[in-house]
Model the fold of this input.
Amino acid sequence: MNTLKARFLGALFILPMLFFGLGSALIDPALQGINSTGSALNSQLGALLVIANSITVIGIGLALLPILMRHSSTAAMSYLIARATEGILLIVGLVATLAFATINDYSQLDPETHYEIGSFVTQLNHSSFQISMISLGLGSIPMLFILHTTKLVSRLWTIWGAFGYSLLVLGSVAELLGFEYGVAFSLPGGLFELCFGTWLILINPNFSEA
Done:
């Protein structure tokens, strides 16, 4: 992997946190039924950022596909499918949120119906996000195993990544069961992607030599 490709892959690991974090912040008022000046524009910009996030996470799977395929087609395809599932489920949450915002704008609902629809959309958005994180965590373990056994990267990265993604899965399962541990349990995995992406950009590892 040459310098440009390594930096590109590193950027792919870092950008989703920016895209999804900012995009969600812009869309959240729509989910809460808040209408204000510029809210429609904010929702549209937020939607574009969430879509960009989905494209980016799928891009990670595609970028690593040829590298992993040289060692394990199963791990390579598992990781690509996991990233694609992640991206698609995040879009599902986005569509539900924007549909609810449209209902708010063009429908006159009684408060009870509005609350029921809002609760359903909030739960759907929450569940799709948590399941997407479970997909990411489970699909990343085989990828990290290949990087670990072939020594494509330092084992510090693979151990950190496996620990972080395992906690991510546990936290997301806990969230689905009603226990609010998701944010805390996602921190090691999030820091891994941020630091790993930065390392790829600055160090430019040559995976092709492994």
User: Anything to note?
Assistant: The CA atoms of residues 32 and 118 lie 8 Å apart. The mean pLDDT is 88. The helical segments are 3-31, 39-69, 73-106, 111-149, 155-176, 182-203. The two ends are 10 Å apart (CA to CA).
